[in-house]
Amino acid sequence: MDxxxxxxxxxxxxxxxxxxxxxxxxxLAIGIAAVGMINNAARIIKRDLFIExxxxxxxxxxxSISPFPKELASSVTALREVELAExxxxxxxxxxxxxxxxxxxxxxAVPDFKSIQIDRVAVEAGANEPGLRDILLERSSAQGLxxxxxxxxxxxxxxGNRYNLKITGIIHDMSxxxxxxxxxxxxxxxxxxxxxxxxxxxxxTLKLVVAEDKLDRSHVLGVAAFARDQVIEPAGYKxxxxxxxxxxxxxxxxxxxKPLNGVLLMLQIMSVxxxxxxxxxxxxxxxxxLVQQIKQIGIMRSxxxxxxxxxxxxxxxxxxLSVIGLIIAIPLYI
Amino acid sequence: xxxxxxxxxxxxxxADPANxxxxxxxxxxxxxxxxxxxxxxxxxxxxVKRGEFVAVMGKSGAGKSTLVNMIAGIDCPDSGExxxxxxxxxxxxxxxxxxxxxxxxxxxxxxxQLLPSINLVRNITIPMEFCNRYxxxxxxxxxxxxxxxxxxxxxxRKKPALISGGQQQRVAVARALANDPDLIIADEPTGNLDxxxxxxxxxxxxxxxxxxxxxLIVTHDKTVAARANRVVTIADGxxx
Lengths: 334, 240
Prior knowledge:
- By secondary structure, chain A is of the alpha+beta class.
- Chain A is built from 10 helices and 10 strands.
- Helix content of chain A is 49%, strand content 22%.
């Protein structure tokens, strides 16, 4: 197929100046790949992390309350403004890693591990629920402590009592900061296990999901205060604190969302800068090509080329380099 | 206006509109410099008939190239008229002049000026592409025909760098004929060639005039001018 003398000229101009063409192509490819990779990463993070987090039915707010029975959760759930409330028991303790370094350990007990509705956890390996004297360790904690299923986790209670719990499962809890960030270990135990550890079987944390305006911080705080004033405290229990588990206080947001969005934004800005630099280099290179080819442009004008034809010729040259750069870049960021 | 001829047939200086291809009337061109204006052309009047072989002679700086640039539509005069084949080219805009030039005129340069990255055939087809003449297969056929006319059909697929200067100039002549123009303008076409090759190029030009083409050649070489039907001498921007 005859491509025409003009396309032939473009191809040969690219081929005959390989080093310059390769410089432009790879600069383009890197710039495009950088933009693609960063934006792809952002999309994947938002899809995998934030959407997955939303799937755990995150709590709107968490209330620290004086010891209460699990039935209190049902009473709060009965409020029109509350979609769901769940009781939890959190116990602060300590553990040691493989190098005998002491770390904080938070043990959590729920009424029914298999039926958690708020801040759902995912069992990644091992048992589906914690048995007696067993613990399901959060996956980042297991990694950080260098432990796996079957290992024993040493636990030291606040009162100095020591116990060993068998790790029977690994879970993933997206509602808390991972061990790598907080350096605090997290595990789920059963209430009988806490009783075995001489803890009184009560609950001290109420997780709440509001019925409407889930992202409205003031509304969420208002509902929590309403629950406190109308149900919890009239029932004789004291609310010590109300906390929204996100860094900027937006209910239902993953704790890392704001800083991660900031980092992603910076990366996206840098990718735009990379593209601008790529564009600058392209402009520079094309200017050099045009200067080098001024005589050839004059020749083409003398044999009948108008301005539009000359512009299209060199746009074709740039386009061909861009297409080649794109072909190289696409596999890099897919 | 003084014109000298190198051949026995004297040209008629009175313009015959039907037979006149190029008509220049009261052409003036000046360039502005920090030292003041330079009058490159002063009141030029010239007629060239169809089929003539005209040599424009003059010393360096006399205005030969300026005159040729006006005729070729590469530059515009300050005043005066340039009529070629009935078209007042100074009234056309730059793009219109470029297209007109591609269709009606072939230009041959001193340093051949072939496009280095494409082969000889494509150097000849490119003017046809720009002016949208002939179909794609016809362009290739015509290019090979023209190369054969200048004796270079065996080198069709070569790039200009692989042939000699004389051969390149022959290709340049073939390119000038790509769109079958009535007028060929050559600016010092033999200036970069040895005498034998120069003679071959001039033979080509003579053949073209025998076929009815009009050839206008700019030269400072008397032996080249001697091959023309008519010699126009320019000195200090005026036809001497």
